[in-house]
């Protein structure tokens, strides 16, 4: 039976693949357009390995074609058997030595890059951020600066930012493809890496290790701003008064509810190291809510009243008293005005 796809099956499959892959490559979420030191270093290795692979493919194809043409069965030579070269020392040596050379060409730069990307010799004088992976969000503690934040990591361009990473629960993997390679984030030990962004911008990050039902929603951002803007951001964050009352009356009620509904038990505002939930000091500047929802009031109300519908298996669901729609709106008004700094994604040119 010839189905509706009929002979066009390959074309159909190709079309589906094109559609599927067209969804990939969100802006600043690709290792193929490196915007940072680590990503560039990986990209160079990728290009090198592709060149070597293409070289091997070309040689193999060439030998294949020559063999096909030269050793075809010819008329009048049906019983002809070509010269047997089994055990030929020269051939054996050539096809042993060439691959070894190719592997060496690949291995030496790879090992050099691996050590280079693990280099911590300047870490002590640089910016150090303690990164904690949690189901399903990221916490960032700027060590020595008493600044805590979550989900959006601000870094200065042109400088190495050293990450000291651990997990509070299961294994996660920290990956900002445009800036650097992946690093596993384990509960048992601290893994380290550094980020160095060449250009200002907002870079997407993903958790790259299956960690539970909402693993694919464990997105975050790295926001690279100029060093001056970064210093400004740090000092703005440091001067936040967590007790400050909002000007708006609705937001004031929201603040009271935020305490009443025990949100404060998990969410710190200011530099308190409490990290059972995301730090909300600059929540009003977040690029997303819970890592992936657009930061609108509507989405925030939805999150506060029913987080489970947004992120299945998250650790907030069921751990606070019921919040009505109206109360959620008041809380949302409070949270959305938490914007202590003028340095936001706009400063990064987005
Ligand atoms: C038991 C601890 C806990 C309590 C209590 C709690 N939350 Fe959460 N909250 C979390 C966790 C954990 C997350 C991260 C969820 C995720 O992304 O997987 C979160 C995420 C959020 C976010 C998104 C933060 C971001 O950076 O995008 C907001 C906003 C929020 N909670 C508001 C509230 C409000 C308002 C209350 C009180 C009504 C509250 N939370 C009570 C633990 C808690
Ligand atoms: Cu994860």
Automatic annotation (TrEMBL):
One Gene Ontology term, aspect cellular component: plasma membrane
A GO molecular-function annotation: cytochrome-c oxidase activity
Localization per record: Cell membrane
GO biological process, one term: ATP synthesis coupled electron transport
Keyword NADP in record: no
Keywords: Cell membrane, Copper, Electron transport, Heme, Iron, Membrane, Metal-binding, Respiratory chain, Signal, Translocase, Transmembrane, Transmembrane helix, Transport
Transmembrane residue ranges: 45-69, 90-112
InterPro entries: CcO_II, CcO_II-like_C, Copper_CuA, Cupredoxin, CuRO_CcO_Caa3_II, Cyt_c-like_dom, Cyt_c-like_dom_sf, Cyt_c_oxidase_su2
Cofactor note: Binds a copper A center.
Domain called Cytochrome oxidase subunit II copper A binding: residue spans: 124-236
Catalytic activity: 4 Fe(II)-[cytochrome c] + O2 + 8 H(+)(in) = 4 Fe(III)-[cytochrome c] + 2 H2O + 4 H(+)(out)
E.C. number: 7.1.1.9
Domain Cytochrome c: residue ranges: 249-339
Annotated membrane topology: Multi-pass membrane protein
PROSITE patterns (alphabetical): COX2 (PS00078), COX2_CUA (PS50857), COX2_TM (PS50999), CYTC (PS51007), PROKAR_LIPOPROTEIN (PS51257)
Occurrences of domain Cytochrome oxidase subunit II transmembrane region profile (ranges): 23-121
Cofactors demanded by this protein: heme c; Cu cation
Family under the similarity heading: Belongs to the cytochrome c oxidase subunit 2 family.
Job of this protein: Subunits I and II form the functional core of the enzyme complex. Electrons originating in cytochrome c are transferred via heme a and Cu(A) to the binuclear center formed by heme a3 and Cu(B).
UniProt cross-references to NCBIfam families, sorted A to Z: CoxB
Protein name: Cytochrome c oxidase subunit 2
Gene source species: Oceanobacillus picturae
Gene: ctaC_1
């Amino acid at each position: 039976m010839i189905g509706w796809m009929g002979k066009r099956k390959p074309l159909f499959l190709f079309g589906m693949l094109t559609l599927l892959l067209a969804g990939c490559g969100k802006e600043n979420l690709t290792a193929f357009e490196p915007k940072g030191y680590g990503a560039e270093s990986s990209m160079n290795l990728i290009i090198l390995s592709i060149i070597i692979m293409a070289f091997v493919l070309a040689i193999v194809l060439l030998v294949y074609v020559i063999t096909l043409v030269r050793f075809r069965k010819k008329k009048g030579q049906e019983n002809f058997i070509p010269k047997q070269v089994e055990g030929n020392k020269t051939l054996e040596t050539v096809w042993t030595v060439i691959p070894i050379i190719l592997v060496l060409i690949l291995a030496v730069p790879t090992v050099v890059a691996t050590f280079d990307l693990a280099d911590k010799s300047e870490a002590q004088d640089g910016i150090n951020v303690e990164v904690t992976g949690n189901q399903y969000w990221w916490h960032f503690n700027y060590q020595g600066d008493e600044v805590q934040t979550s989900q959006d990591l601000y870094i200065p361009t042109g400088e190495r930012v050293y990450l000291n990473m651990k997990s509070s629960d299961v294994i996660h993997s920290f990956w900002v493809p445009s800036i650097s390679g992946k690093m596993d984030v384990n509960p048992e030990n601290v893994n380290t890496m550094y980020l160095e962004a060449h250009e200002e911008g907002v870079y997407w990050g993903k958790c790259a290790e299956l960690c539970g039902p909402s693993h694919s929603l464990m997105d975050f951002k790295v926001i690279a701003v100029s060093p001056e803007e970064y210093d400004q951001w740090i000092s703005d964050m440091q001067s936040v008064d967590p007790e400050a009352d909002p000007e708006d009356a609705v937001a004031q009620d929201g603040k009271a509810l935020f305490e009443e509904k025990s949100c404060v038990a998990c969410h710190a505002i200011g530099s308190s190291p409490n990290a059972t939930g995301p730090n909300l000091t600059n929540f009003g500047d977040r690029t997303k809510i819970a890592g992936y929802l657009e930061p609108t009031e509507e989405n925030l109300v939805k999150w506060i009243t029913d987080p489970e519908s947004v992120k299945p298996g998250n650790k907030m669901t069921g751990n606070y008293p019921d919040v009505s729609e109206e109360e959620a709106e008041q809380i949302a008004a409070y949270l959305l005005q938490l914007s202590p700094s003028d340095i936001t994604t706009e400063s990064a040119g987005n």
